[in-house]
Amino acid sequence: MKLTLASKVTLLRICLIPLFICSYCFFNPDGAARVVPTLLFIIAAATDWVDGHLARSRNEVTNFGKFIDPIADKLLVTSAFVLLVGDGRMSAVSCIIILSREFIISGFRLVAAERDVVIAASYLGKIKTTTQIIAVVLLLLNNFPFRFIGLPMDKVAEVVAVVFTIWSGVDYIAKNKQVLLEKE
Prior knowledge:
This protein is an all-alpha fold. The chain has one domain: Four Helix Bundle (Hemerythrin (Met), subunit A) (Up-down Bundle). It contains seven helices and no strands.
């Protein structure tokens, strides 16, 4: 199998995850050095837009890309959330809700795939991913620059990410419930 440029960019995102994790664990969580893991996270997150743009603009959408792209997204974001919970920067409840949604939708996609049903990504799903990325960045930076004015934007972003996570999950299932209702 020959990999497209878009798939190579997706694989780069996966390769950046261990670097992000190591830099997160290595650098002082409260120091200015927190910028290094944050930049690695932002670069990795940006590859999601790049690979999608490349695949569509070059007409190189592949089954491998459809398979690996959402996995890469989930690995990156959930790695960040687990690290943030470990540091006490993120609520464990928020993390559990987000992880639960991802498991439920992944299972749902497996059932759909067995029935040869392709479910396109929704606009709400893209908003969910964007809000999660914003929350991670603010939590990684310990609410910089908002902490200087006493505005808890990191926690607001966390709640917004949880709301869109739930909303997009419910919407995904509601719009595609026929997959679960069909007999084999």
